[in-house]
Give the backbone structure.
Amino acid sequence: MTGSATYGLSDIAGFATNMVSSFVNFLIMAFVLFCIMKAFNMAVGIGKKKLADEEKKVPTTKICPYCRTEIPIAATRCPHCTSILEDTVKDTAADK
Ligand SMILES: [Zn+2]
């Protein structure tokens, strides 16, 4: 014997079967982990959704009447199209 191993057809078939079963096991584990993470994220997301709904009650953004981009509610000038927002100018004038 010089040390070089000889493999028969049954050895190769066994190796292939091992590889396939390992791969299938990996896929199953990945899918199970994916489902667990999805369920976990959903459980965490329920609390976040309530917070987001509460934040929605107080609007912090408005839509620019010129370019329809969402911009901060206190903005007097649209950062997107640079038009002067007359609604805010009127509001601050009314406050004075
Ligand atoms: Zn704009």
